[in-house]
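Reading is simple: each integer encodes one residue's backbone shape. The lines below illustrate:
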Amino acid sequence: MDIIKVSARSRSTAVAGAIAGVIRDSHYAEAQAIGASAVNQALKAVAIARGYLQEDGITIACVPLFTEVDIEGLERTAVKLAIWQVDRALLPPRLLQALAEALSHHPDDGE
């Protein structure tokens, strides 16, 4: 599986499209970012991808993890976002209500 690499200069909507495409194909995606600005772009992309996938009736969950990566011989700490499709029937009612409220108050995409 390919890791979606996100930089500070990545367009969050483009990353969101990549995440949504991978989720549609394999139900699981990973995004990786190094640095605060890159992590910000990655998290915005997950939120935007959630909106894209919601249109198809797909709900996703995301867990952030730390991982060590080698960049030009130097070990760096990256944030990896594990993203997967979840069955809405298994979600707690309070979470479903919070998601519904969030959708009614915020635009479904943006940067």
About this structure: The chain has a mean pLDDT of 91. The chain is about 40% helix and 30% strand. The two ends are 27 Å apart (CA to CA). Residues 51 and 87 are 16 Å apart (CA to CA).
